[in-house]
Amino acid sequence: MHDWRLLVQQRLAGLLIEDGEAAQVVEELAGHLEENYQSLLRDGVAEEIAARRALERVNDWQDLKRKLESSRNKEAIVNKRVTQFWFPAFLTLALSMVLLAVIQIFGPDPWVDNPLQGGRLRMTPVAVVYVSWLIFLPLIGALGAYLSHRAGGRKLTVFSSIVFPVFPYMVFFAVGLPIAIMFDDRVSHNITIPAFFAGLAGWVIFPAAALLAGGLACSAFRFSVAKR
Amino acid sequence: MIATGVKKGTAELAILSVLEAGPLHGYELSRRIEAQTKGSLSFSLAALYPMLYRMEQRRWIRGTWETSSNGRRRRCYRLTPQGKKKLQPLRAEWLELFSALRRLTKVSNA
Questions:
Q1: Do B49 and A25 touch (CB under 8 A)?
Q2: pLDDT band for position A216 (cuts 50, 70, 90)
Q3: Which is more confidently placed, A127 or A219?
């Protein structure tokens, strides 16, 4: 005798719809599988084969779960998007911006001692602020990955949450700056191609790499823990 | 076998058409569709129930819990007046599509 209700309950554990509705969905699906199973038994199919064939009605339980959630509860999907993407993404963005401001205000002095050369090595303030910021970005990327993973985010969602802080800069370099070059003479006369690519590397590529270094390390760590 | 995309589009029509004959629970509904289409249309649980719930939200069908003679609780679906209204234009749309395809492919007995 198969406990179809228990089986469906286990396979659909964590279904993001209201509790009362979830119980009804479980009962209904369990009833469907039970009827299918009983019908196969009446046709003379052996118990084990009948159970297997009844279960074949569900190819992918995760797919069924997602579809049920989207059909029963729009709010749950919105909440899921918020916890898996929007919250980690905006938190990483806010933290990276706050960190940049904090380093600018309270960060290291632009003049750094270099004992090897027996004197003082002059660094530009931008580099001092920028390098310090870049060093801390992996931690922020790791936090974004952790929060997105914890909420059940998929690979693409986790990836987007990690690199979200560079998105505004990317939009600026990909859309804002080209438009400014086209319509503003002062911008088009003052910007050089090497400067454009240096800016792109400095504000999009390097920060994205730093964020990803932390984020991917966090994902790999979670993966290895889950495998144990 | 009919391709998945086409099946998805015809699923609403199939469900409404079968429910037009009378209320049915999910398992019986899928069994009837499969039998009446000689197996060309068959629903997995992941296709049937989300579709039923969506149609219920649109108020084309209404599901109510009923207890059968053997004491088993089942959710029976019946067509609502809105569902009946929806069925006619849906049938006309699909008929038009099939006629257009028939003309296009010049298949006389499709």
A1: yes
A2: very high
A3: A219
- Identify the domain containing residue B39 by its residue range: 4-105
Q: What angle do CA A28, A32, A34 make, to 5 degrees?
A: 115
Is residue B110 included in any domain, yes or no?
A: no
C-alpha–C-alpha distance, residues A150 and B48, integer Å: 31
Q: B27 and A31: CB-CB below 8 Å?
A: yes
Please report, for the domain that includes residue B76, its CATH number: 1.10.10.10
For chain A, say whether B44 makes contact (Cβ under 8 Å).
Answer: yes
Residue B99 lies in a domain: yes
Helices and strands, counts by H and E, chain A: 13, 2
Q: In a 10 Å sphere around its CB, with 0-12 CB exposed, 13-18 middle and 19+ buried, how is residue A225 labelled?
A: exposed
Q: How many domains does chain B have?
A: 1
Residues A145, A69, B13, CA angle at the centre, nearest 5°?
140
| Pick from B25, B44, B57: CB nearest A57 | B44
Q: Does A36 touch chain B (CB under 8 A)?
A: yes
Chain A residues whose CB is inside 8 A of the B72 CB are 31, 34
Q: Are A111 and A182 in contact (CB under 8 A)?
A: no
Distance, CA of A206 to CA of B57 (rounded, Å): 48
Subunit contact B44:A68, Cβ cutoff 8 A:
no
Predicted structure pTM score: 0.53
Per-residue model confidence as pLDDT tens digits over B27-36: 999 999 999 9
